[in-house]
Amino acid sequence: MNAAIPTTAPAGHVPVMLREVLAALAPREGGTYLDATFGGGGYASAILEAAACTLWAIDRDPDAIARGAALAARHPGGLHLLHGAFADMLALLGGHGVTALDGIVFDLGVSSFQLDDAQRGFSFRHDGPLDMRMARSGPTAAALVNHLPEDELADTLYQLGEERASRRVARAIVLAREQAPITTTGQLAEIIRGVLPPDRSGHHPATRSFQALRIRVNDELGQVATALDQAARLLAPGGTLVVVSFHSLEDRLVKRFMIEASGRTPAPSRHNPASLLARPGSDFRLLANGATRPGDDETGANPRARSARLRAMQRLAHDHTVQGEDAR
Ligand SMILES: C[S@@+](CC[C@H](N)C(=O)[O-])C[C@H]1O[C@@H](n2cnc3c(N)ncnc32)[C@H](O)[C@@H]1O
Fold it and tell me: 183 CB contacts (<8 Å, ≥6 apart)?
């Protein structure tokens, strides 16, 4: 065995819906693109291979940015890594004089690097500190679990995890923390398992509560809402916005945003589906009616892809002006 290979290294991240992302983004030579969620660099690497273009890439996780240095070295002048939150993309890119992009892609949520590293505290499958901070800064999940008032904790689990037994789980957490602070993922998972019956779908009963805490710790919905607005402002005429999301709360935000931006009615009748063409006056058109799902081949090979939904829209090629300011 080669002693130089660390046996505890987290597994790599398998990019989800990569083929569909590339088809929607259609990178072209000389174009300028943004990968708003660099992660393991799977999309970034494929975009750079697909066309001789300039790619900016953002991640709020300092580990992801550090890991990306090797890919940047393989594409001198092609890949530019920016550490920060995607809700700050206008400022991050503006700081480098970038004000218009030919395409932007988001692959929301956490990477396998983050999930599989017990020390990051994202998963009940690995016992570790109850952390969950993508950016490694700000309040941890442990701070929420140990200090939120019981009602607020229950509301968070209900609203962000769609946990129907949120009151029961919050009560159990409060009773446990009265004995001793809850500091590890394993402790929290056990507390929840103690009050919830096993899920018939086979999911661990803590799945929904962990999702809720992660979303709140990282303000994921606030980040997405702000970033979508900024992304639309950065798209050059003909530019495409592609978003892959993994849970219904995120997907709902993306869906509403794109439907509104393309000037379509929020809920077209089943019997009269809206045209793929944008209404006169709107700056964007949807690239597909509804969300695109991964194929069976992909979900069979990568269970993480099962909940993925891809939505995409394109800025129409006619000139546009954003809030009195030329977006180019
Ligand atoms: C699903 S992974 C992306 C994987 C990537 N597409 C690949 O192929 O390797 C999501 C990444 O987005 C980052 N991320 C999530 N929310 C973010 C935010 N608000 N701002 C910046 N990065 C974010 C996470 O830290 C994580 O590294």
Answer: 129, 130, 142
Residues 93-111: b if buried by 16+ CB within 10 A, e if exposed? beeeebebbbbbbbbbbbb
Task: Give the Å distance between the CA of 57 and the centre of ligand 1.
Answer: 10
CA–CA dist 11, 190 (Å, integer):
25
Confidence of residue 323 (pLDDT cuts 50, 70, 90): very low
In the three-class reduction of DSSP (H, G, I as helix; E, B as strand; rest coil), residue 152 is classed as helix
Report in angstroms the alpha-carbon separations of 301 from 56, 72, 162, 176.
Answer: 29, 28, 27, 39
Angstrom distance (rounded) from CA 84 to CA 65? 9
Q: Ligand 1 pocket test: pick from 19, 38, 63, 242 the residue with the most ligand atoms within 8 Å of its Cβ.
A: 38
Select from 59, 211, 220, 244 the residue to mutate for testing ligand 1; criterion: most ligand atoms less than 8 Å from CB. 59
Q: Is the per-residue pLDDT at 207 higher than 60?
A: yes
Span 58-75, pLDDT tens digits: 999 999 999 999 999 999
